[in-house]
Amino acid sequence: MAVKVEMAFTLIVALAALPHIVSTAAAASAENARDARIFELLDDDQDGSVSMTEFKNNQMLVFYILDHNKDLSLTADETFLQPDAFKSISGTDGKIDTLEFLDIVDSAFKQADTNHDGLLDRQEFVALLNRVRNR
């Protein structure tokens, strides 16, 4: 389940990643700016928190961006996951379909919502991104 939780955030982080980072200070600054921008994109109503609906709506955008051949499933070459992580999520058919992806999103949101208020604030969101990056 932990691998599934990481997938949704790994995909977001990978899509937003900068190709070259010059120094540690620059990296931290760029990472903070990138995290803030991702949070702003997810926070559709700009109320300072991300609801499950906002989270799911935007996660599907990530899914469709990744789904290069538009067959409504993700293959290993369409994701940024390590082969073993992809295999554990995709199951026997070797693909991640939209329902499997939504299950991942549900799990990721629930784990990130540490105060259980049904919303992700910026701190909860950044904490989850940091956990994903450090794995």
Automatic annotation (TrEMBL):
Bilayer-spanning residue ranges: none
EF-hand domain residues: 100-135
Keywords for the protein's UniProt record, in alphabetical order: Signal
Highest taxon listed in the record's lineage: Bacteria
Signal peptide: 1-25
UniProt entry tagged with the keyword Cytoplasm: no
InterPro entries, per the entry: EF-hand-dom_pair (IPR011992), EF_Hand_1_Ca_BS (IPR018247), EF_hand_dom (IPR002048)
Keyword match Nucleotide-binding: no
Official protein name in the record: EF-hand domain-containing protein
Species in which this protein is naturally found: Azospirillum aestuarii
